[in-house]
Each structure stands twice: as C-alpha cells, then as structure tokens.
Specification:
heterotrimer; A alpha/beta (511); B mainly alpha (372); C mainly alpha (322); A: 511 residues; Rossmann fold; 3 domains; 6-stranded mixed β-sheet; globular; B: 372 residues; ABC transporter involved in vitamin B12 uptake, BtuC; 72% helix; transmembrane transporter activity (chain C); cell membrane (chain C); ABC_transp_permease (chain C); membrane (chain C); transmembrane helix (chain C)
Chain lengths: 511, 372, 322
C-alpha cells in the first residue's frame, strides 16, 4: 500500500472563461494533516469539490490509496472514504442532529432501525474523538461550533478516512477553533487523513504537517510545515513580497464626527448582537474594529448606517442625533452625511443586474443632482458615472455595461466611487478588500487614507487583522457584541489583539 | 458544466420570445389537428377575423385594450419582484367604482364621467391590491397566495353585491341598473363607421396613455428606479434607503389601479351595466401578456394585440369551425404562459450555443482584430 | 337540529372533504419537496375529464380511474420538467397548467361528445358507488350509534375511505421512512441532500409523481364517483381551497385532514344555511360562507392566528453553484 491517501494528477477545471484549476498535482500522506492555502479565488475550494465529487474535473486523475477512481458524485466519494465539511454547512436546520447524521446513508427503508444504529454509533464516536452531541437537539437551536461538530460527525459516520475541511474556523470563536484543532489532532492520532483549506497562515503553522500553496488556479508549492515560515507562505500565495504596511502619515484627529452611544442591536430573530456599545470617531482618523466574524460587527455596521433598526442607544453624527428607525433609515443617514461601503457588495451594495450607471446612483436616486421632481435625469447620471469611472480607474469604461460583467475589484470600486465622491462627513466601511485582486487592494487602501487626510471620520470593520492594523489609527476589538478593548496599532502585537478577539484579557474601552 | 455567454440583447428581447411563441402556436396547431380540423385554415380564419375588416379589427383593439391594462398591472408588480395573480379580482371589484360613478353621473357629461370613473375604478382596484400588498409588506404573507385568495373573495363579494344590493328591485338578472346617458362612454364607431358594431371606445386612449405612463414610471422616474432595485435585490434597496414595505404597497396599489381600468372599459364602455363575472378571465390573460411582452410597454402593446387578435379571431373561428370554441384561446394562452414563462429555459441554452458557434466563426473569419 | 340532520350534514362533509383532502395531500408531497404547486386545480380538472371520458367510452370505471391518474401524472410531469429540470418559475408553470386544463377539458369535451362540454352520463354500474360496510343494515336500529355507523361511516364510495386512509399513510411515509426523511430534507435544504449523495432532481420528480397520482384520484372522484360524468369546470376552485388547507395545516398531514374537514364542513352547511335565520346573526349570506376558507387562510398567513411558514427551499430551483 502506498503511503499516499490521496493523489491528484493533472487536474483541470474550467468554469466558462475562468480556469479555476490548472494542471494541479497534489499528494497527501495518510495519517497527516495537510494544509492548502491560497487567496480567495485561488481555486482551493474547486479542487476539493472535485475530490469530493461535487464537481467533475475536465481532465486529470484521482488516486485513492494508490488506486485510480473516476469520482462521479459525492456518494461515490463517500464510498471511497472521503468526507467533506463545507464552509457553509449543509445541514437541514429544522432536523434533529440524528436525522442530519443519517440523511443519505439510511441503511433501511424504515427509519427506526437506522436511528437505533446511529445512536449507538454516535455514542462510540463521542467517546473516541470527544465529539459529544445531543442526538435529539434541533440543529437551528445549537451553536455554530456544535453545528460544525455535527458536520464532522456526519463524515465520520459515513466511514470517512479522509476528511476535507473548507475554511473551518471562519465562523468559530477562538475557543471553538482551539477545540476543533484538538479534535483534528485526535483524528490524526487515530490514523485519519485531514485536508485543511484555509487562508489563515497562523492555522497552517499551528496544526498542519505539510502544506500546499495555490495561486490563481495553480499549485505553486508543497512544503513541510516545519521547514517553512508564514512569510515564505505569504509570498508564495501572492507571488511577490507583500507590502504589509500601508504608506500613511500620522493622523490629525479633529472634532468628533461620529459617536455611538449605548447602542443595542438585535438580529432578525431578535437575538441581541450588539450589546451596548460606545465609541467616537473623530475627523481625520480611521477607527478599525477588529474581531472574529459573527461577533456583532455586521449588525453594528447595518445599525449605524440605518439599515437595521437599533433596539436602544443613539448614533450621533456631527453633534446631532440621527433618527434611523423605519425601513428607510439608510436614506436619512445618507442625507446627514454618512456614506456606507457595505461588507458584501453583491448582496447589498450593488444590483448586479443593473447597468453600471444605475449602480453609481444607488442610494442617491432621490438626489436633486439626478433630475427635477419625480423624474430621473439619466443623462446627468451617466455623465457623472463616466467621470467617476475615469477617476477610480474602473474597467471596462462603459457605463451601460451590466454590473455583473465587472470583476470583483472593479465592482468594489464602483461602490467606493459612489460613496466617496459624495464628500460625506463620515465613511463607514466593511470588509473593503474582500474578494478583491491585489492591485485593487492597494488602490482601495490609498483611497481610504486619502479620505482620512481630507478630514473625514472613518469607521473600518474588517476580519482581516492585517488590514485593520495597517490602516487604523486606533483599533477597537469587538467580541460577543461588546467592545472589549482598545489598542494602538503601532504598539499592539498580533498576540495581544488575538487574545482580546477571543474575549480573554479584556480591558474596558476608553470612549 | 460550462457557463454560457449571455444572448445578445435583441435575441433576448425579441428572438427568444418569438421562438417560444412559435412553439406554443405549433403545439396549439397540434391540438387543432387533434380535434380533426386544419390548423392552417384556423389560422387564416383567425387572422381574417382579427384584422381582415373594420369591425373585426375594432373588436381586436377592444380586447387588446383590456389586455394592455391587465398586462401592465402584472408587469408593474413584476418590476418590483411581486407576482400579482389578482388582476382578475382587482378588475372585478373596480367595477363597483365604475358603475357607481356611471349611475350617479348619468345625467351629466361623459367628460365628467370618464375621469371620475377612472379615479373610482383605480381607487377600488388599487385598494383590493393594496391589502395583499400590505399583508406582504407588514405581515410577510406571500402576495401570490393572498392575491389568489382575494380573487375568490372578490368573486363572493361581487355575487353578494349584485344579487342583494346593486340589483334593481323587481329585476331577475343579477346585474346592476343600466347607464343610459353620460354614463355610457363614447364609442369610436360613432366617429368612424369603419369599426362597424365593435364596442371599441374612448378607453383605448386611456390604454395608450397607460402604456406611455408606465414606460416613464419604470425607466424615467425615481420611483421606478426604486421599484426595479427592489425587484432585483431587496437587500440593496433597503441599503439604498428605500422603504421596501412602503414601496410594495405603492406598487401593488398602482398594479391594482391599472387592473381596475378594465372596469372602465367593460362596464361603462361596453356593457353599460355591472354584470356578474364581467372581467371573464382578462386579468389572467394579463399574466401571459406581461410574460410575452417581457414586462416592457412596447412588448405588452404587441402581445396585447396578439391576444386581442386571438380572442376576436377565436370568436370568428367559432362560427366557421364550430368544433373549435373559444376555449382554444385559453389553451393557446396556457401554452404561451408555459413556454414564454415557465419553460423559458427550454430553448435558451440551444440558442445561446448557436450564438456562441456563430460568434466563434465570426471571430475566426476576422482574425487579429483589437481585443474586446 | 335532530340527529338525522346532523348525520346527513356530517356525511356530506365527508364527501365534500374527500377531494380536498386528496388534493391537499398531493400538494403536501410537492411542496414538502420544495416545489410550489398552484396547479392542483388544473390536474384535478384534467383527471376528472379524462376519467369520465374513458369510463364513458369503455364502460369501465377502473379504466377511467387509471386514465385519470395517468393524465394528472402527465400534467405533473410538465410541471416537473418546467420547475425542476428547466429551473423555471413554479408559480407561472402552475398557472399555465390550470389554464391548459380549463381550456382542453372544455374544448375536447365539446368536440368529442357534443353535449355542451359534458361527457356522457355514466350508468349506475359504470361509476364508483357507495360501499356498505359490514352489519350497517343490522346495526341501524341501535340507538345513536347505529345511525352514525350506517349513515355517517358506512355507505361512502371507495375514494372517501382512500382519502382518509391516505392521511395516516402520508404521516407514516413522511416521518417514519427513509423516503420521507429525504423528502422533508430536500424541501428545507436541497444542498444538504445533494452533498449527502442523493439526487435532488430524482427526489423531486418522485414527489411530483405522487402529487400527480393523488390529484388524479381526486379528479376522478368528481366525475366517476361523486358525479356520473364530467361537467364544465367541475372542480370549481377546490384545488385552490386544498392549497389554502395545506397552508392552514402548515404543511403537515394530520392537521391537513382537519383543515380539509373544516372547509368541507363549511361547504356542506352553506347549502343548508341558504335563507335560514340564525340566532343573533340573522341570515348569513351564502357568499360569506363560501369566502370563509379564503378569508381564514389570508388571516392565518398574515400571522394573526399562528404563523404559517412553508418549507424553506420552496419555490427556488436548485442549482449547484452556490
């Protein structure tokens, strides 16, 4: 028997014009944890979906334990002992954990014998890998960490010998992530093979035995983790030395332009997500909010910009309190001089089926600049859109082109141009460079700093700690809906920030 | 699985709907053959009946008038992402407004009756659509289901009103009293004998105006921009400061008001009284018209003409080929809805591949051009 | 009201509930799999016509039933192709099917049978008649229970018993079998089903097959059991009432039965209430009772009495890429 659990040879996959995987070779040794790193869109998830049978490769070969197989679908992959935990869980929310575990591998037409067997098996798995769950609990009632555990149990219940985890820690708190890593180590001790897809180098260094780096659909290197460094991996990922520091001068904070007072915000299910937050942002400074995704940052952004109703507390802009209630609060926030670059441009910031010029007035459709009375002055809007295209180097330069046909970076520039060119007092920015190519990242960072230097107050939310550290003048750390600490980006270490993001070692934020 | 290149715009707006229509007509032809008739003869009779002489053409325009209103009603809602299946019920209750204005103002002048009837019908039709709109906006109930339910509620309500309230004492038929004076809208045949006895009336100009107004509304006003934003992406519209709930209610009201115009045409323009079930399915035809017309006023005008011709030609057909009744039109309508609406994906992939092949050949024929 | 009247109203309720219940359960399978179905009415209508036509031509009611079911399944498969394979709009497809049935049944009825759209009346032995349960006659004289057994429980045709048997059967399938588990899963989260290695497409086709089957039985009930022949628009909107009942029951089989019984009861009493003075309210217009199922459904949907939330994936075609 070969030492390789998985061998991929010459894998190719295209989606239309996009060559997602180019001639990929990959070998994964049995009983190890193998990391795959790469930027968003490097082709990691596609490659793993091919291994799992969710997509079929255009060409190439897959060997499992030395034997070639043409994996046709997920069921086939499962039969070969390959299980996958997707980034977005594939659980049925209103099913019990037990029902989710057996779905698809019920061994009898009636459920009763299947359930009996599954209960016994879950008990065994729980003791063997410390993966305790209550089989009767309904999935939507349990925490995200527990839901992920159900996904792992699903794979193990199906007899997975190779477990693929796609960005498993993105939704986890640091404590939950630690627990996950302990489980993964136990699994490795028991002889399982684990493939960990991530873009977080810290995780690669902490847990993997070997690591492969992907860039723009190609496999650029496979290394022993012990013999490499985060710097080397980062360089391989982006293909050149990363400029970790953004060039910027010292901040000259002026008067307070944005103040958030005792803000409480709930989500759609009335669960409090922001639990009494206070902070100020001054003219000419960038305040960065760091935190693990899902700790209330999204709700904070949506509340401050008037999209989501606040439960209590105030948002004060340039000294006057904003009234944001109702489902058109965003219009009033804009009128008061608050511009908002949302976290997810495709879901919120753009209408992907609109022509470019239409998106360049989205949110400002009632502005007198675009016509008199009820009518819209389309020519004026198009003229202005064309000017902005030039200024922000948005390509292709066609205001009539459907927005979906622009690249991620150019779409983000459309949003930025719209929000920045209104000359707002306050700019609220969420995940400004998510899914944006490297070239555009620099441009976007420079634009944000330019806004700061023009005396705007900027509130920046990002889950990329590097981005927060290099852009912010002050860092606030958010955990479980609260500000748990403040740090100076010049002096704070990643370790200190990490502890705060995990809710450990908190100190009260200075307002 | 490969991602296909989208169709060129003209193919998407014109060619594909036409191919789908052709498919629907071919299958309709098969149905005609199934009942032992010659589909080409049927087509000839329909065409002549609808366009061949003045009165027939007048009827075609008359039916098309109704379909413009209901097609626009469905389209306006569709632009905001709402599926209004209730145009039938909205038109029906709007009849109350039309007849009340007609009866009370019967002794005045039609110049007074017409605007008031439009307002009253629009108000009641709009109100009947506003309730499902409100329930969708504020209570989250699906507008499709509620508008279906409101069609039935409208029907029960109107039967009650016509049998118990609006029926004159001593009359057997469940209809309202008749308008005889100013309540009866001017007929085009009074000015153009060309139209024979066709009930084509002044309302057709309201329909033309409605087409233009809806075009301006959707593509040239701030409200229309907001509606299209909502229709494409409700999250983006609330990000844009648009009140989605208010906009849903406004849109449904406009939609219902447009459907209500059918009442002006039918009640005051043709029947001169309020009759049981006077919208006789025109509201539902609106779905086919809007689908076929791609929710665009020009498309709606054309497809309303098509259905108007089918309705009128179908009547004619009934005389010449007694085997084929007007129900044939319902079948054609169903097939049009099926192929241009639900099975739109049937021909699209093939057409896209055809265009890609053609495009590739073009490219091969003209090498070394500047990159696009 | 005396016992006989009550029994006769309740027996009428059962008879009127039967097609509602069959159609409602039909819709349950479809919607639980994540496919909206507003075409229940059309499928029933087409089945009613096909069953009556076949029964009239062959003189065999079983052949009628079979053809009715096949036609309904055929229409259900049109819906399946449009909404599952072609990923079309499920509402539009349902609307099309309703019109197709309305047009074709009348058109073919007129041209085939020349009786104003009706199919020839079936002879006594040519349709499904009431079945006398054992000892119904003997027990008739037992006070209270006798008439109930004889008048209410016994004497219905096969379809009535089938419909009520379909309720526990559906509940059993849904909650106790592998197929049921997968069906419920695919309506909530098709991706979970897909990643578990089960074909979403196949599962949904199976669900719509059952929907077609049940609608076929419901339709046949109108024309070859309850009635003796097809009449124009015979189903009279019952498909929509069944849809309302399905929402009312929050997509669960046993509550679906009670919702259908309620709507069937309303239908049964409205005939009796015509012109009757009720204490306190006076005369209730028939139309008010006719509209009641729709009004109740609207009120329920609006969340004024509980909240009806359907299967999460309902109405959305499944595509892998997201």
């Amino acid at each position: 028997m070969t030492p390789w659990a998985i061998e991929l040879i010459g894998i190719n996959k295209r989606f239309g014009e996009v060559h997602a995987n180019k001639d990929i070779d990959l070998k994964v040794k049995r009983g190890t944890i193998h990391g795959i790193v790469g930027e968003n869109g490097a082709g990691k998830s596609t490659l793993m979906s091919i291994l799992y049978g969710f997509y079929t490769a255009d060409s190439g070969q897959i060997l499992v334990n030395g034997t070639p197989h043409a994996i046709t679908d997920s069921r086939h992959a499962l039969q070969l002992g390959i299980g996958m935990v997707h980034q977005h869980f594939t659980l049925v929310d209103n099913f019990s954990i037990l029902e989710n575990v057996v779905l698809g591998v019920e061994h009898s037409p009636l459920l009763a014998p299947t359930f009996a067997k599954a209960r016994a098996e879950l008990k065994r798995l729980a003791s063997e890998y410390s993966l305790d769950v209550d089989p009767g609990a309904i999935v939507e009632d349990v925490s995200v960490g527990l839901q992920q555990r159900v996904e792992i149990l699903k794979a193990l219940y199906r007899g997975a010998e190779v477990l693929i985890l796609d960005e498993p820690t993105g939704v986890l708190t640091p404590a939950e992530a630690d627990h996950l890593f302990r489980v993964l180590r136990v699994l490795r001790e028991q002889g399982k093979t684990i493939i960990l897809i991530t873009h977080k180098l810290r995780e690669i260094m902490a847990i993997t035995d070997s690591v492969s780096v992907m860039r723009q659909g190609e496999m650029v290197a496979t290394l022993e983790t012990a013999g490499t460094s985060p710097e080397e991996l980062a360089e391989l990922m982006v293909g050149r030395r990363v400029l970790l520091r953004v060039e910027k001068g010292p901040a000259n904070p002026g008067k307070v332009l944005l103040e958030v007072v005792d803000l409480v915000v709930t989500d759609d299910l009335k669960v409090p997500r922001v639990k009494g937050i206070n902070f100020k942002v001054r003219a000419g400074e960038i305040v960065g909010i760091a935190g693990v995704a899902g700790n209330g940052q999204s709700e904070l952004l949506e509340a401050v910009s008037g999209i989501r109703d606040q439960k209590s507390g105030d948002v004060v802009l340039n000294g006057s309190k904003l009234s944001l209630e109702g489902d058109d609060g965003a219009a009033r926030a804009r009128l008061a001089g608050l511009a908002h670059v949302p976290e997810d441009r495709q879901r919120m910031g753009l209408v992907i089926n609109f022509e470019e010029w239409e998106n360049s007035i989205l949110g400002y459709q009632d502005d007198p600049a675009y016509g008199k009375g009820v009518l819209l002055d389309i020519d004026a809007a198009r003229r202005q859109a064309a000017e902005r295209m030039e200024k922000f180097d948005i390509r292709p330069t066609n205001v009539r082109l459907k927005t979906a046909n622009f690249s991620g970076g150019n779409q983000q520039k459309i949003v930025l141009a719209r929000e920045m060119e209104r000359d707002p007092l306050v700019l609220v920015v969420g995940q400004p460079t998510r899914g944006v190519d490297i070239g555009a990242v620099e441009f976007i960072h420079n634009q944000i700093i330019k806004m700061r230097d023009a005396g705007k107050a900027i509130l920046l939310v990002s889950v990329e700690l590097d981005e927060i550290r290099s852009l912010s003048d002050r860092i606030l750390v958010m955990f479980d809906g609260k500000i748990v600490g403040e740090a100076d980006p010049a002096t704070a270490t990643e370790g200190e920030l990490g502890l705060m993001m995990a809710g450990i070692g908190t100190k009260e934020a200075a307002p | 699985m490969s991602v296909r290149r989208p169709l060129p715009r003209w193919a998407d707006v014109a060619l594909l709907p036409l191919l789908n229509l052709l498919l629907a007509l071919i299958i309709s032809g098969a149905v005609v053959m199934l009942i032992g008739q010659n589909p080409l003869d049927a087509l000839r009779i329909i065409t002549y009946g609808a366009f061949g002489y003045g009165e027939g053409f007048g009827y075609t325009l008359h039916f098309a008038t109704n379909f413009v209103f209901t097609g626009l009603a469905v389209a306006v809602a569709a632009h905001a992402g709402l599926f209004n299946i209730g145009a039938e019920g909205q038109a029906y209750v709007a009849g109350i407004g039309a007849i009340l204005v007609g009866l009370t103002m019967d002794q005045t002048h039609w110049l007074l009756v017409l605007p008031l009837a439009i307002i009253a019908s629009a108000a009641i039709g709009g109100f009947w659509a506003l309730i499902p709109g409100y329930l969708q906006a504020k209570r989250g109930s699906h507008v499709v289901i509620t508008t279906i339910m409101f069609n039935f509620i409208a029907s029960a309500l109107m039967v009650y009103l016509l049998t118990r309230v609006l029926k004159p004492v001593g009359q057997m038929d469940p209809t309202s009293a008749a308008v005889t004076g100013a309540g009866k809208l001017p007929q085009l045949r009074d000015f153009m004998s060309f139209f024979g006895y066709a009930p084509l009336n002044i309302t057709i100009f309201i329909a033309i105006a409605a087409l233009i107004l809806v075009y301006v509304l959707i593509w040239h006003t701030r409200l229309g921009f907001a509606m299209r934003t909502l229709g494409h992406n409700p999250v983006a519209s609330s990000y844009a400061g648009i009140s989605n709930s208010r906009l849903i209610m406004i849109t449904m009201t406009i939609s219902g008001a447009l459907a209500g115009m059918v009442a002006v045409n039918q009640v005051l323009g043709v029947q001169a009284r309020l009759q049981l079930d006077f919208p006789s399915g025109y509201g539902f035809v609106g779905i086919a018209v809007a689908l076929m017309g791609r929710n665009h006023p020009i498309g709606i005008a054309l497809s309303a003409m098509l259905f108007g011709a089918l309705y009128q030609g179908g009547l004619e057909l009934q005389f010449s080929m007694p085997a084929i009744t007007r129900d044939m039109i319902v079948v054609i309508q169903a097939l049009v809805i099926l192929f241009t609406g639900a099975m739109e994906g049937l021909l699209r992939p093939g057409l896209e591949s055809a265009f890609m092949l053609y495009g590739a050949r073009q490219k091969a024929a003209a090498p070394a051009g500047p990159g696009s | 009201m005396d016992l006989d009247t009550i029994i006769s109203v309740l027996a009428a309720t059962l008879r009127l509930t039967t097609p509602l219940l069959l159609a409602c359960l039909a819709g349950l399978y479809s919607e639980r799999s994540g496919i909206f179905d507003i075409g229940l009415e059309g499928k029933m209508l087409a089945a009613a016509f096909a069953a009556a036509a076949m029964a009239a031509v062959t003189g065999n009611m079983w052949a009628g039933l079979l053809v009715g079911i096949l036609v309904s399944i055929g229409m259900s498969m049109i819906h399946a192709v449009a909404s599952i394979s072609l990923k079309g709009n499920q509402i539009i497809s349902g609307v099309a099917i309703n019109f197709l049935a309305a047009g074709l049944t009348t058109l073919l009825g007129l041209t085939w049978f020349h009786q104003g759209g009706r199919t020839p009346a079936l002879a006594e032995g040519g349709r499904f008649l009431g079945l006398d349960l054992p000892f119904a006659f003997e027990l008739k004289s037992v006070p209270v229970l006798g008439p109930i057994y004889d008048g209410l429980i016994s004497g219905h045709n096969l379809f009535v018993y089938l419909a009520f048997l379909a309720v526990p059967l559906t509940a059993w399938v849904l909650y106790r079998t592998r197929f049921g588990l997968r069906l419920r899963a695919v309506g909530e989260n098709p991706k979970a089903v897909d990643t578990a290695g089960i074909s979403v497409v196949k599962l949904r086709y199976q669900a719509l097959l059952i929907t077609g089957l049940l609608c076929g039985v419901a339709g046949a009930y109108f024309s070859i059991a309850q009635g003796s022949g097809f009449g124009n628009n015979m189903t009279g909107g019952r498909g929509y009432i069944a849809l309302a009942a399905l929402i009312f029951a929050k997509w669960r089989p046993v509550p679906a039965m009670f919702a259908c019984l309620l709507f069937g009861f309303l239908d049964a009493v409205q005939i009796r209430l015509q012109g009757v003075d009720l204490p306190l309210v006076g005369q209730v217009p028939v139309q008010a009772i006719q509209a009641l199922p729709y009004v109740l459904t609207v009120v329920l949907l609006a969340g004024f009495i509980g909240k009806a939330v359907g299967p999460k994936a309902g109405g959305v075609p499944y595509t892998k890429e997201n």
